[in-house]
Design a protein that fits this description.
- With 374 residues, the chain is mainly α.
- It has a domain at 1-39 and 289-374.
- The chain contains eleven helices and two strands; from the N terminus they run αααββαααααααα.
- The chain has helices at residues 9-26, 52-73, 76-99, 123-164, 177-184, 206-226, 230-251, 263-286, 293-300, 303-317, 328-367; strands at 103-106, 109-112.
- Strands 1-2 form a two-stranded antiparallel sheet.
- β1 (103-106) and β2 (109-112) form a beta hairpin.
- The longest helix is centred in the middle third of the chain and has 42 residues, at 123-164.
- The chain starts with 8 loop residues before the first helix and ends in a 7-residue tail after the last helix.
- 40% of the residues are buried.
- The model is unreliable at 1-6 (pLDDT under 50).
- This is DUF5009 domain-containing protein.
- InterPro entries: HGSNAT_cat (IPR012429).
- It comes from Chitinophaga solisilvae.
Length: 374
């Protein structure tokens, strides 16, 4: 635990807003009652919820633009060791979080969750892989080389889907990454949210996701180099608009799709991230309006730690049973929030309540100058 370095307040707010949104969309009171904007697109397309994860990867890149300066000063060997150590640490934490709480209810009794069915990938493992790959690319190729590498990755991914896919290469059945994940990971270690073994954080779709981190890094570098000027802000806005326009054009032949993380989806989400970041910077850095920012900086100062803590707490709900046939998660929704707001609003209130709880924890940690670097 160390004291946080000086940083742009707007970047902390952007990062904190993203973490708060991740907790909000991951924890409805009931998955049967979720407002459409708070649910993922069924396949092609993009909802506000589909922006949350790529925005977080973009924020990882922002933070990297500050950290890499310190890493580089330590020498090549130290940089590689630091990158690999952090990558492995986040990946292992992700695996443990997938396995946590290590037990489950079976026929009225708690039994250990077998490693034979442990999901290997997921949000944290993808963050780890994208961080590690992006950091190495940036370290060896520097800024311009990293920009070129990101472009190459986006087009290579498109080529791989067309060359290796079957039937409709952008469908679940024809997606080239599906057989690759089955071969390397095994069906028992894959997510089944589509009703069949399919991992939206799969190996092949990690390639374009790396670009979200690279573009976030380049945006962070640009902001630092240009300083707080209206020219910098205008160029951020223009680049965001250009990327969104390019994404919508590409969407006509390569659909925007989060679940297979298409290249058009990368450009679209990076473009929107640039626009949102520009608005936040204008309000905070240029207009000096900071009222309410503390709520989001509470998340932004300890982003990964609070996200992991939220995952741990909510997973514990599943093994605590106030009644023989109901876990704590559903009990809280059914007995507290549903009576207050009904099905839909009660489900939303459940999620908002948890956002506020973890905001309070983050605020306390920031007040005590406690910053956990994962």
């Amino acid at each position: 635990m160390v004291t946080a370095p000086q940083r742009f307040l707007s970047l902390d707010v952007f990062r904190g807003l993203t973490v708060a949104a991740m907790i909000l969309v991951n924890n409805p009171g009931s998955w049967d009652y979720v407002y459409p904007p708070l649910a993922h697109a069924k396949w092609h397309g993009c909802t506000p919820t589909d922006l949350v994860f790529p925005f977080f990867l973009f924020a990882v890149g922002n933070a990297m633009s500050f950290a890499m300066k310190k890493y580089e000063a330590a020498g090549n060997t130290a940089v590689i060791r630091k990158i690999l150590t952090r990558t492995i640490l986040i990946f292992v934490i992700g695996l443990l979080l997938n396995w946590f709480p290590f037990v489950k209810w079976t026929d009225g009794a708690l039994t250990f969750k077998p490693l034979s069915s442990l999901r290997i990938l997921g949000v944290l493992p993808r963050i780890a892989l994208c961080y590690g790959a992006a950091a190495l690319i940036i370290h060896y190729l520097k800024d311009k080389g990293a920009f070129v590498a990101a472009g190459v990755l986006l087009f290579v991914y498109w080529f791989l889907l067309l060359a290796c896919g079957t039937g409709d290469p952008y469908s679940l059945e024809g997606y080239a990454g599906l057989p690759l994940d089955k071969l390397i990971l095994g069906e028992n270690h894959m997510y089944r949210g589509e009703g069949v073994p399919f991992d939206p954080e799969g190996l092949l779709s990690t390639l374009p996701a790396i670009c979200n981190v690279i573009f976030g890094y380049l945006a962070g570098r640009f902001i630092q180099e240009q300083g707080k000027t209206y020219e910098m802000l205008a160029r951020l806005l223009i680049m965001g608009c250009v990327m969104i326009f390019a994404a919508l054009c590409w969407d006509m032949v390569f659909p925007i799709n989060k679940k297979i993380w298409t290249s058009s989806y990368v450009l679209y989400t990076v473009g929107l991230a640039l626009l949102l970041l520009s608005v936040i910077m204008y309000i905070i850095e240029f207009r000096g309006v900071t009222k309410g920012s503390a709520f989001f900086t509470a998340f932004g100062k300890n982003p990964l730690f609070i996200y992991i803590l939220a995952g741990v707490v909510v997973k514990l709900y599943a093994v605590i049973r106030p009644t023989p046939d109901q876990n704590l998660y559903s009990w809280i929704y059914e007995n507290i929030f549903r009576p207050i707001g009904g099905n839909m609003n009660g489900s939303l209130l459940f999620a908002v309540f948890h956002v506020c709880v973890f905001a309070a924890i983050g605020w306390w940690m920031d007040k005590k100058k406690i910053y956990v670097r994962v």
